[in-house]
């Protein structure tokens, strides 16, 4: 089972970036943890972080008929990107949206997600655990729909 893990803008700065909101964990540590979980779950992960919307759109297109699922933290693009939403919707690949912080506890502009309505579900607020929970949920969904 192949899964694409996408990280949106500024997530390369985790560890340094607003640690009071996002904690001290780095993106490399999150990816390592996911890779360990994936071994247990029988999933094969590919990772991409980009600060550029078009690069993420291209990566989603390239996932067509290659990846069975997408685990995405769209970061700020969650709240702005019709292009990312349309890319995911056009491929019909089961997608789980995750956020480190609880976006609903934060500024109002973070309460709206363009991605959530076309995702299987969203996990928000558990720090790096959001990714781990999201991966498990995605694998369970893909296993059930086989
Ligand atoms: C985030 C929440 C977004 O609102 C923010 O723009 C991010 C990170 C999170 O993981 O909590 O960059 O997606």
Written overview of the protein:
This protein is of the alpha/beta class. The chain has a single domain (2-108, 128-144), classed as Rossmann fold. It has 5 helices and 5 strands. The chain has helices spanning 19-22, 27-41, 53-62, 82-91, 128-144, and strands spanning 2-7, 44-49, 69-73, 95-99, 121-124. A 5-stranded parallel sheet has the order 2-1-3-4-5, sandwiched between helices. Helix 4 (82-91) links the parallel strand 3 (69-73) and strand 4 (95-99). Helix 2 (27-41) packs parallel to helix 5 and helix 3 runs parallel beside helix 4. The longest helix has 17 residues, at 128-144. It is globular. The termini are close together. The model has no long low-confidence stretch (mean pLDDT 97). The structure holds 1,3,4-trihydroxy-5-OXO-cyclohexanecarboxylic acid (DQA).
């Amino acid at each position: 089972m192949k899964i694409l893990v996408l990280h949106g803008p500024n997530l390369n700065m985790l560890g340094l970036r607003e640690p009071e909101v996002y904690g001290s964990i780095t993106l490399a540590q999150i990816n390592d943890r996911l890779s360990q979980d994936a071994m247990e779950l029988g999933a094969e992960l590919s990772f991409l972080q980009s600060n550029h919307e078009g690069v993420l759109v291209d990566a989603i297109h390239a996932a067509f008929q290659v990846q069975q699922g997408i685990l995405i933290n769209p970061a700020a693009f969650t709240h702005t990107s019709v292009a990312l939403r349309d890319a995911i919707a056009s491929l019909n690949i089961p997608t789980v949206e995750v956020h480190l912080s609880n976006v609903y506890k934060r500024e109002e502009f973070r309460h709206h997600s363009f991605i959530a309505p076309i995702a299987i579900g969203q996990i928000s607020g558990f720090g790096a655990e959001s990714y781990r929970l999201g991966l498990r949920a995605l694998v369970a969904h893909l296993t059930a729909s086989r």
